[in-house]
C-alpha cells in the first residue's frame, strides 16, 4: 500500500508490530479507502510512475494490451496499489491471486481460461508459485496459449487452449528467486524503493484527510521519521496516533502528542520497535557487541531464528546498526550510540573477521556459530 498498501493496527494479528511491513485483515479493509485511484494520485516512486505511464499510454494509443509488468521491492511500498491503478488506467477488470494459492498447473489453467480480453491478472508473491504452474505460465505469457493435459501415461494428450490477450502484473519481494525464463517474459520491470521522509509526510497528510484526522506538519514529520521509509507503516502509525489523540486528548495531533503516542507503542525515534531493541540490547549487553551466531542471538531474545533474520535484521542492517559477517552478527558503533551504552575497552577491529577468515568463508552469512 501506499497511502496505499495496507495500513494496519498493532496487535491486530499475532506477532504484528506497529512497524511490521506485513498486513492483516483489518489492514486490507482500511486500505481500500486510502489507496489512490490513478498514477497522478500515487505519491513517490517517481521513476517507476513515469516509466509505467509511458507503457500504459503507448498501449492505449495502439489499442493493444500492454506488456506484462513485474513489480519488485520490499513489502508495503505500493505494488498492489500500482496493479490496481494499471487496471483502472486501462479501464479493465482485475483478477487478484497469489503464488502460494497456485500449487498445481490446473489451478493456473482454471484462472487463465476464465480471463476476458484485456483483463489484468495480478499475481502477488509470484516467486512462491509452484514449478509446474510456472512452466505453464511461460507459454501463456508469450503465446496466450496453454496446453491442458488430458489423461495419464502413454494415452495422455495435450489439448491447446487459446487465451484472450491479457496483462499479467507480478509482484515479488524477492526478485532474485524468479527463474530467468520467467523474468525475461515481463516487458516492464519496476523496482520499488523506500520512501524519503518528505514523501512519507505527503502520504501521511493525504491519509489524514481521508481519515478525518487533524494533524500539523511537525506531527506528520515525527511519524514519517519513524516509518522505516514505508507508506504502509506510516499509515499504521498514523492510525495509532489518531487513537491516542482521541482517547487521551481532544483529537488534534501535534508533534508532542505524536511522540507520546509512539512511545506508548514502543516505536523509538529511528523507527525501532521492541524486537529491534531487544536484538541490539542482547548483542551489546550479553555478547559485548558480537560476533554471535543467529541461533544464539534468537534464543537470547526469546524468538525464532527466522523471526530475527527476516523481521528485525533487514532494518537494523539498513540503518547501519548491525552487520552480518562470516563469524556472526556484530554491532556497529551506531548501535552503541543509539542505545546509549558505552562499548567495552577493546580495539574497534577486535570483533571483525580477519582477511584470511573472509577468504576461507567466501561469502557473508554467519547464521550459526
From TrEMBL:
Region (Head domain (RuvB-H)): 269-369
Full protein name: Holliday junction branch migration complex subunit RuvB
Binding site for DNA: 324, 329
Known role: The RuvA-RuvB-RuvC complex processes Holliday junction (HJ) DNA during genetic recombination and DNA repair, while the RuvA-RuvB complex plays an important role in the rescue of blocked DNA replication forks via replication fork reversal (RFR). RuvA specifically binds to HJ cruciform DNA, conferring on it an open structure. The RuvB hexamer acts as an ATP-dependent pump, pulling dsDNA into and through the RuvAB complex. RuvB forms 2 homohexamers on either side of HJ DNA bound by 1 or 2 RuvA tetramers; 4 subunits per hexamer contact DNA at a time.
Catalysed reactions listed for this entry: ATP + H2O = ADP + phosphate + H(+)
Composition-biased stretches (Low complexity): 7-23
Enzyme class: hydrolase
InterPro entries in alphabetical order: AAA+_ATPase (IPR003593), AAA_lid_4 (IPR041445), DNA_helicase_Holl-junc_RuvB (IPR004605), P-loop_NTPase (IPR027417), RuvB-like_N (IPR008824), RuvB_wg_C (IPR008823), WH-like_DNA-bd_sf (IPR036388), WH_DNA-bd_sf (IPR036390)
Entry binding sites for Mg(2+): 80
AAA+ ATPase domain segment(s): 65-198
Amino acid at each position: 500500500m501506499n497511502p496505499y498498501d495496507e495500513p494496519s493496527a498493532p496487535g491486530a494479528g499475532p506477532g504484528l508490530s506497529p512497524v511490521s511491513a506485513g498486513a492483516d485483515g483489518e489492514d486490507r479493509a482500511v486500505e481500500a479507502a486510502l489507496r489512490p485511484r490513478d498514477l497522478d494520485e500515487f505519491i513517490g516512486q517517481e521513476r517507476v510512475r513515469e516509466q509505467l505511464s509511458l507503457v500504459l499510454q503507448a498501449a492505449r494509443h495502439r489499442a493493444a494490451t500492454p506488456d506484462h509488468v513485474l513489480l519488485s521491492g520490499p513489502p508495503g511500498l505500493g505494488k498492489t496499489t500500482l496493479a490496481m491503478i494499471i487496471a483502472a488506467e486501462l479501464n479493465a477488470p482485475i483478477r487478484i491471486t497469489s503464488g502460494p494459492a497456485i500449487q498445481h498447473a490446473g489451478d493456473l489453467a482454471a484462472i487463465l481460461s476464465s480471463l476476458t480480453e484485456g483483463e489484468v491478472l495480478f499475481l502477488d508473491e509470484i516467486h512462491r508459485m509452484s514449478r509446474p504452474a510456472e512452466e505453464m505460465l511461460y507459454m501463456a505469457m508469450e503465446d496466450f496459449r496453454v496446453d491442458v493435459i488430458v489423461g495419464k501415461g502413454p494415452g495422455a494428450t495435450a489439448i491447446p487452449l487459446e487465451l484472450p490477450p491479457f496483462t499479467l502484473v507480478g509482484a515479488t519481494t524477492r526478485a532474485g528467486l524468479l527463474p530467468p525464463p520467467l523474468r525475461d517474459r515481463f516487458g516492464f520491470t519496476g523496482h520499488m524503493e523506500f520512501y524519503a521522509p518528505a514523501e512519507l509526510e505527503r502520504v501521511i497528510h493525504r491519509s489524514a484527510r481521508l481519515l478525518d484526522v487533524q494533524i500539523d506538519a511537525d506531527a506528520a514529520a515525527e511519524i514519517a521519521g519513524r516509518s522505516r521509509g514505508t507508506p504502509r507503516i506510516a499509515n499504521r502509525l498514523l492510525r495509532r496516533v489518531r487513537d491516542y489523540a482521541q482517547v487521551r486528548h481532544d483529537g488534534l495531533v501535534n508533534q508532542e502528542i505524536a511522540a507520546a503516542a509512539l512511545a506508548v507503542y514502543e516505536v523509538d525515534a529511528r523507527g525501532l520497535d521492541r524486537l529491534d531493541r531487544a536484538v541490539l540490547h542482547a548483542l551489546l549487553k550479553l555478547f559485548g557487541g558480537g560476533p554471535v551466531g543467529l541461533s544464539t542471538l534468537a534464543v537470547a531474545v526469546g524468538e525464532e531464528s527466522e523471526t530475527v533474520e527476516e523481521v528485525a535484521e533487514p532494518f537494523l542492517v539498513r540503518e547501519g546498526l548491525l552487520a552480518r559477517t562470516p563469524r556472526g552478527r556484530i554491532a556497529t558503533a551506531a548501535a552503541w550510540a543509539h542505545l546509549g551504552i558505552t562499548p567495552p575497552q577493546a580495539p574497534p577491529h577486535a570483533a571483525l573477521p580477519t582477511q584470511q577468515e573472509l577468504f576461507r568463508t567466501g561469502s557473508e552469512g554467519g547464521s550459526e556459530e
